[in-house]
From TrEMBL:
One of its GO terms (cellular component) is excinuclease repair complex. PROSITE patterns: GIY_YIG (PS50164). The keyword Protease does not apply. InterPro entries: GIY-YIG_endonuc (IPR000305), GIY-YIG_endonuc_sf (IPR035901), GIY-YIG_UvrC_Cho (IPR047296), UvrABC_protein_C (IPR050066). This is Excinuclease cho. GO terms for biological process: nucleotide-excision repair; SOS response. It comes from Rugamonas rubra. Signal peptide: none annotated. GO terms for molecular function: hydrolase activity; nuclease activity. Keywords: DNA damage, DNA excision, DNA repair, Excision nuclease, Hydrolase, SOS response. It comes from the Bacteria. Residues 36-110 form the GIY-YIG domain.
Amino acid sequence: MRTHVSSVGLLIHGDPALSFSYPEHIERASLDALPSQPGVYLFRDEAGVAIYVGKSVNVRSRVLSHLRTPDESQMLQRTRRVDFERCGGELGALLRESQLIKQLQPVFNQKLRRLREMCSWRLDGGAPQLVFARDCDFAATEGLHGLYGSRASAQQALRELADAHGLCAGVLGLEPLARGRPCFARQLGRCGGACVGEAVAEHAARVGAALLPWRVAPWPYAGPVGIVEESDGLRQVQLVDRWCYLGPQAAGRKRAPPRAVAQFDIDVYQILAKPLLRGDLTLVLLNEPLGNASGGQVDAAGGASAPTAFAPVRRTRSFR
């Protein structure tokens, strides 16, 4: 008899696939209907309330792995059925999972919930200033660096950056700085000396260089774009605007939906920023509200070129 180690480190004798049986209290038909394609799935309780939302490139396999995990027994005991939505690919599943968790707030999802206050460091020549999404349009603002869920986490990240690069915490505003006296880090040999005579411009340049990897890219288009994915015969166009996921394009609809207020979403940014700006995605430019049906990339002024600060997008087309 073979011995296996489970995903939580438990020793299991025999083949777990052979010994597995569906929990009797979970509607069997809902489990039998699960597809082996990309999508999202929802564990629902007796009242039909979503208590957990997940995503996978193989929904059926992922859900069955939940059913075999002993440390998820509390969630499984409350589950009565499992629903699913197919997606055109992994990216669409990631975006839809994030959207559903924010909308439904399932009790067993701890990550991807909407942040109470999102903030970033804005660098405009001098010391970075902490700005909040409630006061600043993160999708359109230049000079933002880092995305945080609280003032404390932003300050901690900047402090760690200062330690790593020999920056002055006093000049950065992270601690009180008495005139003519070195900061605490300088006394420990960790500060380059901005508090005791290093040129302001030189320190500001070092701050800018240290923050550069944290740069938050503004939305590079004048309006929404559609991200095209296809899997096993299902083609979807996921609508995104201003780093905000708007949902899949409605079947049969030939234009973008009326423009709603799209608010910057940190999770959408983290999912899309690298592949979008590298040009790894297949996009369609939506001719509403841009008013451009000629194809090509569209800049903020309605012209025919993409912002030069960003990588060109592969296989971009006009969507009609």
